[in-house]
UniProtKB/TrEMBL annotation:
Chain ranges passing through the membrane: 12-32
Keyword annotations from UniProtKB, A to Z: Hydrolase, Membrane, Transmembrane, Transmembrane helix
UniProt source species: Qiania dongpingensis
PANTHER family registered for this protein in UniProt: AB HYDROLASE SUPERFAMILY PROTEIN C4A8.06C (PTHR48081)
Name of the protein in its database record: Alpha/beta hydrolase
UniProt key word Membrane: yes
InterPro entries named among the record's database cross-references: AB_hydrolase_fold (IPR029058), BD-FAE-like_dom (IPR049492), GDXG_lipolytic_enzyme (IPR050300)
Length: 324
């Protein structure tokens, strides 16, 4: 009996440790950028000024304290309509802020798009109930308000792209894939870096979840806000349970064109899940670019040329599917 108790205690401690490690390491990805910027990458940043645009900060879209967004408005306000690019911040669903992505939002604005950085309620001591599902629903609720605010400033929004990095990439794909059909603004494309897209234990080898299904169930319960047990894995019931937080499970022939980048040596989120997503997009004939950085981890830090290729594809897709 004592051995059984010890075994249960060890299992519980391991599950707790996995959750702590996941949160701590994922927080380290709050900004998916590299410290050194090659000339190829520098072109995707701008020296912000009134000649490029203006920014309206801390606009409110909901009742929760985190329900705020920043709106970057192009200096040229003469067009009949504009494309909106929403870029969601990283931080492992537990930290981060819209201001972390100021640089890419400014660059997007310089290209003539209305750009929005949106905050969402983080899972922390003050909000232990927050999870990927609740965060994705907050983003969904924000989009009509973002469009309304842009219109108030004279920018008519008639198309949009969803984008983000890491946790933000996960949420962006959920909106682009799950919510596109009900979006008040037609979603034309998505782009993201290193966002987790599915919850299959065999893909999460970086945390040993392929070997410890109890730990996987505990972690996925925290992330999805659903009560998951190991016996559910591999069943249709499980897919139905986690579908609202798994972009992969929404892929079909109507999925929007997507550009995505992943590091082969990512230890913070499951690289293998990106392989699964690439396969699903191919099988459904979805136009997409899947760029793997072979020497990089979660920060996409060791393959400057390929990161520049990712950004070039982002710009190409924006031009093709969002126009000017």
């Amino acid at each position: 009996m004592r051995e059984g108790v010890k075994k249960d205690m060890k299992s519980g401690a391991f599950v707790f440790l996995c959750i702590v490690i996941f949160i701590v390491t994922f927080v380290a990805s709050i900004v998916i950028k590299i410290s050194y910027k090659s000339p190829e990458i520098k072109k995707y940043s701008v020296q912000w000024s009134d000649e490029i645009g203006t920014v309206q900060t801390d606009l409110i879209y909901g009742e929760k304290p985190a329900n705020k967004f920043d709106l970057y408005l192009p200096a040229d306000n003469s067009k009949e309509s504009y494309g909106l690019v929403v870029y969601l911040h990283a931080g492992g669903f537990t930290s981060g802020d819209k201001t972390d992505d100021r640089e890419i939002l400014q660059w997007l604005c310089s290209k003539g798009y209305v750009a929005a950085g949106i905050n969402y309620t983080l899972r922390d001591d003050a909000h232990p109930e927050a999870n990927v599902l609740s965060q994705s629903n907050e983003i969904k609720a924000s989009i009509p308000i973002v469009a309304e605010e842009a219109n108030k400033y004279g920018y008519n929004i008639d198309r949009m792209a969803a984008a983000g990095g890491s946790a933000g990439g996960c949420l962006a794909l959920i909106y682009a894939y799950r919510d596109a059909s009900s979006s008040p603004i037609p979603v034309k494309m998505a782009f993201e870096g290193v966002g987790p897209t599915s919850f299959y234990p065999e893909d999460w080898k970086c945390y040993g979840f392929d070997q410890n299904k109890n730990a996987a169930a505990a972690m996925f319960s925290v992330m999805t806000g659903k009560d998951i047990n190991p016996e559910m894995f591999g069943t249709a019931e499980y897919d139905a349970l986690v579908k609202d937080t798994s972009a992969l499970l929404w892929v079909d022939e109507n999925t929007v064109p997507t550009v995505m980048a992943y590091g082969l040596h990512d230890k913070f989120q499951p690289y293998e899940a990106s392989v699964r997503l690439d396969k699903a997009l191919k099988e459904n004939g979805v136009p997409h670019e899947y760029i793997v950085l072979p020497h990089s981890g979660h920060g996409l830090q060791n393959d400057n040329k390929l990161y520049a290729e990712y950004m070039a594809k982002v710009e190409e897709y924006l031009h093709k599917y969002m126009g000017k």
